[in-house]
Amino acid sequence: MNKLYNKYEKEILGILARYPAEGKRSAVMPLLFLAQRETGYVPTEALSNIAEITGISETDVASIMGFYTLFHAEPAGRYRIQICTDLPCALRGSESYLEQICEKLGVKEGETTADGLFTVEAVKCLAACHRAPMFQLQGDGEIKYYEDQNVEITMQIVEEIRHKVAAEQEA
Amino acid sequence: MADMVTLKIDQQIVTVPAGTLIVNAARKAGINIPVFCYHPKMEPVGMCRMCLVEVGYPQRDRVTGELVKNEDGTTKISFAPKLETGCTTPVVEGMEVRTTTEKSNEGRKAILEFILTSHPLDCPICDKGGECALQDLTMLHGPGKSRFIYDDKKLFAKHVPLGEMILLDRERCIQCGLCVRFQHEVVDDPVLHFYQRGRSLEIRTYSEPGFDSIFSGNTTDICPVGALTTVDFHFAARPWEMERDPSICAHCAVGCNLIYNIRREAKSGGKTVIKRAMPRQNEFVNELWLCDKGRLGYHYVAAAERLTQPLLRKDEKLVPVSWEEAYQRVEDKLRAEQVRLVTLAGGRLTNEDLFNFHQLNQSQNGKAVLYSQMAGGDLTAQIGLGKGSNFSDMGKGTAILVVASDLHEEAPLWWLRVKQAAQRGAILIVANARPTRLDKFANHVLRYEYGQEAATINALLDGKGKDEFTQAAKAFSEAENGLVIYGSDGLGLNGSEQLVKACAKLLVERGYYGKPNNGLLAVWDKPNIQGAWDMGFHPDRNLKGTLREADVAMIAAADPAGDNPILAQALEETDFVIVFEMFMTETAKMADVVFPVQAQIEREGTYTSGERRVQRFDIVLPHIEGPKSDYQIAAQLGRLMGLSTEDRSPVLVMNKINEKVKGYQEITYSRLAERAEQWPLISRADSYYAGTGYENEYGVGIQISSSADRGEELSLGTLILVEPQEEVATGIKVVPVTALYDRGQLIQPSQILAKRLTPQVLLMHPVLSKKYQLQDGDQIKVKVAGNEIVSGVKLDADVPQDVALVARSNGFPISSPVFVQIQRLVPEPEA
Ligand code: SF4
Ligand code: SF4
Ligand code: FES
Ligand code: FES
């Protein structure tokens, strides 16, 4: 049928099986998620693939992707460090926390580290205001919360990930 | 009659059907509640909050359920504490709505201030400026000042092309969603949608080509701001500089009502030119819409190369002469003893032209031939769509059978209206040899092989055959009202004749004729084919022979020689050819006399649409020096021959038609100008309610009655079918189909449509292409009618496996099914 389908046929059939045959469009969200899993963003080609699988227009698929901030249309680092800078977090110093993280990683907000591993993004409230500052780590098809952060703890997490990736590459 | 509800709006008592929304009830009472995201042709969504009003409901005692009374005996009304959206709230009995109180005024003001927080306010360079809902409503209701920070406005690139026809200014968009909903709900081309949200929200298209919809122009009318504009009108003129002239679209048999906005401008050398075409409301015909062909296909009028002087053949050459000399020459010819005259007329002539041509022709015992490949105009005149029919009234209880037509391409507005009837519950049966865009909305889809059109209808009549057929036959016979829409998909004149007879028989046997929303509807390929039939012109199955045998051929608005080399050959043998044309066509080049004629927009006249609605159009542009109207030339020739043909004005010709032509008794120009009450009530003064389309001040036309409507005896002839003789030949069978954007004389000059023109290819199924070892994109030589044409090949799995399709008026001399030989062209090896 198309690239995405051929690659993940079994998984896609599994997703489609969750919805009635005439409601294939309901599978758009899991399919977008699937398409994003590998590269951290949804390439344009995947949009048309999903459109074909679900029987809705590519424009409609793109609209759904665009609506949700957890879907990305542009490539970035393997991990996105998404730091909340909304009001409650800001009151607990998230802005300078963000600044310092950026400094440590040698990037500006929105940029990716030279090794291609981390992109730092400022985002809106993630509903963990009571444990601010906080960030959300999106990557490898997963989303994790890290709460009650400070620069040291966060940089430790960053280092751990770097180690993990290095170990992966050696293996 | 629906249940009626009485309520009070700003002290006015209003009675409307239950379920009516407050904004519409108010409008009926002449109270205009401002809206942005509401459109009377779409479902309400309540997104913009511009229509906030105070709504009070009659109070009831909780225990007894009785209405609570005030001291003075009136019902106690309790107002909701918050304002409510008038576009989503249906009226209820006893409701009271206040639209001008301080509270509702405050509401509007606040919403406008909110919408304007990030609006660029670039009205001076905005194409919508002067007819913009946001501008108008801000003037009426808005705050004079904003409390928001100017520098904080969102900034986006402006004038982003959504395809080559429509531009988007993302800063101006107020996120009303009308364009998105129009594309999804109304025309089923879901190629526009929101992307992102909040201040990052923008309209996007991902289709290829961009904004791929034949109705795209309508979004520029309904967009309440200058976010969507056509490339055609971009920076072309200001709305207030233009005048409006009503006209009728001449591109298909629907006959959409439109307005041409014109302006005299230095840019065009002081000439008056058309700046754009806009829909003119006619709820019987096109509602508030136009297809893009109608909207953008007007540029031919400005094409150079117009003929301006009569031409006469002298010493083998066509040379300019005076009108007198040309007339004299024709008169001499016609006066010769026993001339065999043939008058060949095309379907873009007006009723007045055709009537005069017919008179002239008749006086010489000539043969009046219609240049068309479709049969059935005599049948539609008798059992055609009943007087008083309106697609908008069709829904449950009506069965619509569409056969051999790709309505989306052939008559876009009918496609839209049939789709909507089906969505309202009409039974839709679509029969075609290949899938079309209507299938999706059909209850029954019937497939046949090209050539089996009539047989298919007969099968429906017998109710025998495959399962789908019996079911469809049953569904069609059980309806209250039935109509059959037939087209010319894959048909020539012979096939068309068989098909229309079968359709007529089906309708007669089921009793679906002679009443509103019943009968036969032909999808003619020209605006006035029905008028031509009515004025006495009929297609000729042996046109070649007829032309060959004629001594004198008068050819108006037709280019047989250009369309078909065989007809060109036949014309060689005609002694004397008189051509009435705007351009130097192939036929004109062969003529002995050429009369230059005016374009539709330079003259008055009437067309009879497929639904047999006679509609009048006015002079839009001053005519160029030289050409005359066809009816005038025909009349003057008539006078020379001693007839009293009318040459002073089309109005007077219509008065004669009215006396002489069956069905036209009720038609006069003044009656054609009568308006009708229409819903929604739109007006240019408050274009925020339904967009910038024009109200109809010029008349909605008159649908003429069929013989059956009038209770006359029918003479349908034998509806017995002759088994079509299968032409057996070698090669590939090619059938012609109609494409919206063909390469006809009227389309090509519109550069803006260039990219959307139908490719010049043989469309075939992969199975067939394999047989000939062809691949998508190959070039081939097609041998047809003794000619060789180079064509492309395009593969399409929707085409039946044993035929190839070509589009009509697209460079192939193919107007009916034919067998061709093909040969693959091997590309030159690259040097
Ligand atoms: S482009 Fe126009 S019609 Fe579409 S959402 Fe924006 S303002 Fe509304
Ligand atoms: S549907 Fe036909 S009449 Fe209407 S605008 Fe399109 S081409 Fe013109
Ligand atoms: S404001 Fe940061 S999580 Fe809510
Ligand atoms: S909310 Fe009523 S018009 Fe938009």
The CATH class name of the largest domain in chain A reads Alpha Beta
Largest sheet of chain A: 4 strands, mixed
Segments of chain B where pLDDT lies below 50 for 5+ residues?
none
Number of strands of chain B: 35
Secondary structure: helix percent of chain B: 10-25%
* Helix segment tally of chain B: 23
CATH T-level fold name of the domain at 311-372 and 531-669 in chain B: Rossmann fold
The shape of chain A is globular
- The total number of structural domains of chain A is 2
Main sheet of chain A: which strands, in order across? 2-1-3-4
Largest interface: A-B, 13 and 12 residues
Task: Tell me the Rg of chain A in angstroms.
Answer: 18 Å
Strand portion of chain B, in percent?
A: 15-25%
Strand order of the largest sheet of chain B: 16-15-26-25-24-17-18
| N-end to C-end Cα span of chain B | 78 Å
CATH architecture of the largest domain in chain A: 3-Layer(aba) Sandwich
Largest sheet of chain B: 7 strands, mixed
Structural class of chain A: alpha+beta
Shape of chain B: globular
Please count the beta strands of chain A (DSSP E, at least 2 residues each). 4
The whole-number mean of residue pLDDT values of chain B reads 94
Main features:
heterodimer; A: 171 residues; alpha+beta; Arc Repressor Mutant, subunit A; Glutaredoxin; 2 domains; four-stranded mixed β-sheet; 48% helix; 13% strand; globular; B: 831 residues; alpha/beta; Ubiquitin-like (UB roll); Rossmann fold; Dimethylsulfoxide Reductase, domain 2; seven-stranded mixed β-sheet; six-stranded mixed β-sheet; 24% helix; binds iron/sulfur cluster; binds FE2/S2 (inorganic) cluster
